[in-house]
Write a structure and sequence with these properties.
alpha+beta; 3-stranded antiparallel beta sheet; 3 helices; globular
Length: 67
């Protein structure tokens, strides 16, 4: 089974380059430190997030907004 992973560049939005989330790299790192976003892990030299963990947090946040 392959685990899909995301780098910070995939997640964060920068001027002129949208990411998966409407958040900056700094905001994502602050949320990780605060325990409000999944912790990344090292994959070789890269720092990555498990895509399923990120999708789960997005789903939970969406449910909080709707309900």
């Amino acid at each position: 089974m392959q685990r899909r992973v995301l780098k910070i560049a995939d997640l964060a939005t920068r001027p002129g380059r949208p990411g998966m989330l409407p958040l900056s790299e700094s905001t994502i790192r602050r949320l990780v430190i605060a325990g409000q976003f999944p912790k990344p892990y090292k994959l070789g030299a890269a720092t990555v997030w498990n895509m399923a963990d990120v999708e789960a947090i997005i789903t939970r946040q969406a449910a909080n907004v709707v309900g």
